[in-house]
Amino acid sequence: MRQKRWFFLVFLVPVVFSFYWLVFRPWSVPIGSPPEVLYDQVVLDPPPIKWGGKIWVPVNEFGLVAQGPSGYLPLSQVMPALGRSPSGGHGEGIRLPLWGSGSKKDSHYRYYPVYQIKARLEPEKRIIVGHLVLAYQNPYFYPLYDLLFNLPSNGWPGSENTLTIQRIVLNNKPASFIVKKSRLEVFLHRPLASGETLKVEISFTTYLPQRPARLGVWEDTFMVSGWYPILSPREKGAWRGMAEGIAWGDPYFADSAYYNVELELPPSLMVRASGRTTGGEQRGERVLWTFMSEKPIREFAFVLAPGWKQAYAQIDQTLITLAFRNQLPTSTLDIAMGAFAFFKEYWGPYPYSYLNLVEVPLEGLSGMEYPGLVFLSTRKGYTPPVIVHEVAHQWWYNLVGNDTISSSWIDEGLAEYSTLLYYRVHDPVLYRQLKEDIIAEAGETLNLEELSEALNRELKSFTSEKDYRQVTYRQGTVYWLKMEEKMGVKTLQEALRYIQEYYRFERIEAPWLEGILNFYIQHKGK
Ligand SMILES: [Zn+2]
């Protein structure tokens, strides 16, 4: 009898336990309280707003009934309603319970990847042999099963296979991958959990075509952008590749990361890059140049040429340099300095110690923006407003980015609007001229609602460079001019300064941008 009962229990206990585990475990795990983070440690969708010294949160996010016209409540009122006491008064130290945002595909922690790139240029063959190490921490609230890298140089019209991949290693174990034009898909050995870190090593070779382009060699100048595998951004829970084969606009974009780069170059070539130069050491026949980004930047580009002349200007912590070939271009450096000082004041701080302007033989574009680096075309020529526009991109493109494939009007429109703001103060005659030209070239007159419909267009939907420019640049600027009329120049500045603060080193998406602008419109004068 005793023995029988024991025998019975041996069977019963595992059966009951398995049944309990299978049926109840998913529900019996204590949910606990949501993680708490400082309001600026996480990117929420929709974002919290700072207004009148308080942080306002969209109440729907926290399961509360919306009150007031905009559905926002001060965080100091939301916290007691959730049974919590606010931790840090009304300032920076206030903690948000991360309620519900785990299911939101675009909410993430601010973990910035770190790229370490070592590359050697072979100038006669016009190739770069590179080795990249990426330290990546999954910033999302869900696991990742693969990584997508963009190979931008393969995505330009007629440039397939300029960037080739030799080997990929994940956490010291070789990994399998697929390359399809500009897409490099890397399969992870096992899922990468939220917050977990992965080391990715990629060996690659990039061929530099002979052309006066953003990636190309022309005369004796090497223009080098989009030259290495760069992690694709994610949108709505999926990787966002490049818009291949499109000649206009910026058909790829990236999220910010720290960069440490070593370039091995022949001693005859000088270099200007998207980073602070930290060393230039002779190594046999070569010079080993080292760079660091200091803070996150959106990508790393550089230019090489022999025999540049240079001019310098220091503004606060930042050294602005101009590299040019022949005559010192009159006033280029002065205009860059004026614009830089103005935008620092108007939009917010510039967190790097370097800003490099370089004259290059670029075809088709007067200027081109990279983080801490501006191309100015000697081939097409550039005017003073082009310099101001490119300097403004350091705030709108580099510090705060956007999807340049579906909403290029955000950074282009804001760079143009910034240019108008600069001239409104510094040269009112030129300001009126530029404004009239933009309005005339924008074509049909649309109101704000019609504009926000018309502006969010995929790059491939434009029929030509001219069509792209009319919508993205001209109508994109008219949008900001109309927004200024609607909310007042000061309130618009305040809203955009908030975006510079909350979205620094991040990307703003069009619906979030409109949400923030609407908040400021509704609370205007409060
Ligand atoms: Zn631009």
From TrEMBL:
The chain crosses the membrane at residues 7-24. Binds 1 zinc ion per subunit. This is Peptidase family M1. Zn(2+) binds at H389, H393, E412. The keyword Zinc applies. PANTHER family: LEUKOTRIENE A-4 HYDROLASE. It comes from Thermanaeromonas toyohensis ToBE. Gene3D superfamilies: Neutral Protease Domain 2. InterPro entries: M1_LTA4H (IPR034015), Peptidase_M1_dom (IPR014782), Peptidase_M4/M1_CTD_sf (IPR027268). It holds the Pfam family Peptidase_M1. GO terms for molecular function: metallopeptidase activity; zinc ion binding. Residues 333-504 form the Peptidase M1 membrane alanine aminopeptidase domain. Its cofactor is Zn(2+). Keywords: Membrane, Metal-binding, Transmembrane, Transmembrane helix, Zinc. The keyword Metal-binding applies. The active site is at E390 (proton acceptor), Y473 (proton donor).
